[in-house]
């Protein structure tokens, strides 16, 4: 359940979102198929909450995050931010909406321009979206550096002079520059040393509280999501297969895929470790350019039934706020 510091206002509304990438081949670059990276996902994100998005690598999490921010022209569906439909807004008109929604990337090394100073990187969004004077910008950049725990004296240094954790703080400061409401955090700590992961997560949590931020937190690390998310959506091969509050998802997972993912989380207590029933998933995630007929998970599901191989399972609400797409429950 959402606690009372979170509102009941929906800030982000995603409906039947599809992002298919065309596959071209041959000398005439004919369109021969498509990668169905995101294939019809729907969920709401409440103002001030963190929605975790989990699933194995390749299941479409990053594409979903980017499509929601309209870093792509989406194939189908609707995305509303604060009541404004941006799913079909042409790119030039999106500029006005950009400040409200930002992204923190997985690899701070790759997402920071090595030839720009830290101050220039953090201040870049201000050049385009504000009419601050040079002095005002400088002051804003320095206060952003304070907010993310970077020493102001390093404002003129370059990204390579910083550690991985500090570089991620630079990326976070840049994302905050325009006072966004909604931030997609795409595996923001996956590339960092384990020893500093917690610091960056704590920073993100502190900033959320201070500025009332709403997060879509993408991760393949379930213990991290369990720590940070209010609700969790589980993705498999372009679809959301289950969504529930954190407590419900971890204590009472319904979808066989969620059950398998959770059973693979390492148990730190060696006494309990023996008791964990591991569900081993066989085979790899099928290619999103040629997904199975029926349920996407039917080729690997330990509880597969005949109907699963022919009919796509409907998404049903098993209990209030707990949805799953599986024939076991429909
Ligand atoms: N620009 C693109 N063009 C073609 N295929 C893509 C593109 N981006 C991602 N994909 C494919 O879409 C699928 C989902 O990728 P991604 O969203 O990165 O998954 P995840 O973040 O869950 O690991 C993968 O099969 C990937 O190869
Ligand atoms: Mg990814």
UniProtKB/TrEMBL annotation:
It comes from the Bacteria. InterPro entries: AAA+_ATPase, ABC_transp_ATP-bind, ABC_transporter-like_ATP-bd, ABC_transporter-like_CS, Oligopep_ABC_C, P-loop_NTPase. It holds the Pfam family ABC_tran. GO terms for cellular component: plasma membrane. Residues 12-262 form the ABC transporter domain. Keywords: ATP-binding, Nucleotide-binding, Transport. One of its GO terms (biological process) is transmembrane transport. GO terms for molecular function: ATP binding; ATP hydrolysis activity. It is found in: Cell inner membrane. Gene3D superfamilies: P-loop containing nucleotide triphosphate hydrolases. It is a peripheral membrane protein. The keyword Secreted does not apply. CDD domains: ABC_NikE_OppD_transporters (cd03257). Belongs to the ABC transporter superfamily. This is Oligopeptide transport system ATP-binding protein. The lineage of its organism: Bacteria, Pseudomonadati, Pseudomonadota, Alphaproteobacteria, Rhodobacterales.
